[in-house]
Amino acid sequence: MSHVSQGRAKPKFKVGDKVKEKSRINNVWVTANAACKSKWFKDRTVGIVQEVFTKPTKGGAQYFYVKVAWLNSNHVSTHSQMRLEAVED
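Request: output the structure for the sequence above.
Response:
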């Protein structure tokens, strides 16, 4: 009986890639503070990947996370790679 090993997962993005957040159209903003946060999210249109790393879940699986510097603000944030999509030049 032969043993077939599965390949390791690879990150979707690499340092220097342009990314944007996937649409979050279902969010509802009902307070003034929430409206401020809404603007904060809408201002983050395109960003540049600064770092790609993994974090373990409770079960021990490794998920890829991406640190993004947003172009039209001085904000840097970390996101699961599943929340981001590539931007074509």
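The radius of gyration is 16 Å.
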